[in-house]
Amino acid sequence: MKKIVRIIIGVGCCILLAVSWIIIVNSKSNAEKQLILINQATALINENIFILAVPLLEEAAGYDAAHTLVAEKELKKLYISLIDNRGFPRKYTNLLEKQMVRRDAEPEVFIEAAEYYLSNSKTQEAMDILRNGITRTGDVQIVTLYENSRYVFETHRPSYDNVTAIYGTSTQVQLDGKWGIANIDGSIMIPCEYDKISTFNSGQAIVKRDGSIYAIDSNGNRIAVANGEASDFGNFADNRIPLLLKDGWCRATGEFETGSTMFEEIGMYSGGYAAAKVNGKWGVIGLSNDWLVPAEYDEIIQDELGRCFAQGAVFVRSGDSIHLISGGNAIGNVYENARPFNDEGYAAVKKDGKWGFINESGVEVIQFVFDDALSFGQHLAAVKIGEFWGYISMYGYTVIDAVYYDAKSFSGGSAPVLTDRGWQFITLLEYKRGATL
């Protein structure tokens, strides 16, 4: 009997102690609870018992108290240590996402998350995080990591004998003497079986085959035919195609409805305007007969597609001098040569035998140190350094090495480059799913 009494008393004491402990613990503040849990977890970690330390730190991090960030920091270390275990990569990224959405999120969190995704070859996710971090914090370190990471690219397998600059999401490509249309990753859209092909616009392209000029859709179906008087054409944009008739060049629609105004030459429309030549002089004309720039110059500078106008500016040549015209006025310095602006970025101009860059206000923004250059496409410009071409950022730094025999401007995250295998396409991994900044 005495033994049973002693057992009952012992059990009662244990229960009393447990109840007392629960009361004591529950009476503590959340911050004190966090410290207890963190200390218990630390003891386990020191013994390399990581898996049992996880729930302790998860509980500590669950409190909104003074030591939450400490608990989260230690918890992330544990997740990384256990990252090869099922479920822990998701635990780690979930915690990072929780930290990044806080109103007072620290720049270091965005950097940590981006570096994790970069280390796992998830460039798109990393770029999304860095752009968000730049928008949220404006931190210099985030900007630096973004600039150092955004130029990773892949080279696509298809190669061609010749290509033109990318227009929209496609480009003209030549193979075995015939022309077709490729997507910006180099994959073929319209097979190379035409003597000539225009840019692809509004679901169609203009082609020449066996002396006939007609319009086709993306499947190669004939959808309109030019009259027999037409002998040549330019590139197609803004539902306008330059068409050469016996009396000169005119503007035609995609259905080959021709206007009455004739020109000695006319370029491709861009932004509603095209370079045009009348009476031996060049100007810039709109979709109707309104002249943005009067036809009084020796040349309107055009790119290889025939575009001349972007960002409200054009380059004109009088004699040996190139001028920038914006808002109807010549601005900036006089240059030896120039490339037209693209829809965004700086324009390449030549001075004293070297190429540099200006903005749309005529201000020189990148030094004149290049042997040749194209205007910026997106945030990159093709430049020639010695015998080879590479790309610089808008800060003027070389970000894609000059290893190519020739190069075109970026558009849609891709650019054609000339390699030992012919013309191929490189695509920034940042843009594989169409991201922009």
List keywords for this structure.
437 residues, alpha+beta, Serine Threonine Protein Phosphatase 5, Tetratricopeptide repeat, 4-stranded antiparallel beta sheet
- Spatially, the strands of the biggest sheet line up as 1-31-30-29
Shape: elongated
Low-confidence stretches: 16-25
Helix percent band: 25-40%
How much strand content do the residues show? 25-35%
Mean pLDDT: 91
CATH class of the domain at 32-153: Mainly Alpha
Q: What's the main sheet like?
A: 4 strands, antiparallel
- CATH second-level architecture of the domain at 32-153: Alpha Horseshoe
* Structural class by helix and strand composition: alpha+beta
Question: Might you state the CATH topology name of the domain at 32-153?
Answer: Serine Threonine Protein Phosphatase 5, Tetratricopeptide repeat
Helical stretch tally: 8
Describe this structure in words.
- The chain contains 8 helices and 31 strands.
- The protein has a domain at 32-153: Tetratricopeptide repeat domain (Serine Threonine Protein Phosphatase 5, Tetratricopeptide repeat).
- It has helices at residues 2-27, 30-46, 50-62, 68-81, 88-100, 107-119, 123-137, 140-149; strands spanning 153-155, 162-163, 170-175, 178-183, 188-194, 196-197, 204-209, 212-217, 222-225, 232-233, 241-245, 248-252, 265-266, 273-278, 281-286, 291-297, 299-300, 313-318, 321-326, 329-335, 337-338, 347-351, 354-358, 364-370, 372-373, 380-385, 388-393, 398-404, 406-407, 414-419, 422-428.
- Strand 25 and strand 26 form a beta hairpin.
- Helix 3 runs antiparallel to helix 4 and helix 5 (88-100) runs antiparallel to helix 6.
- By secondary structure, the protein is of the alpha+beta class.
- The chain starts with a helix and ends in a 9-residue tail after the last strand.
- The strands form 8 sheets. Strands 1-31-30-29 form a 4-stranded antiparallel beta sheet, with no helix packed on it. Strands 2-3-4-5 form a 4-stranded antiparallel beta sheet, with no helix packed on it. A 4-stranded antiparallel beta sheet has the order 6-7-8-9, with no helix packed on it.
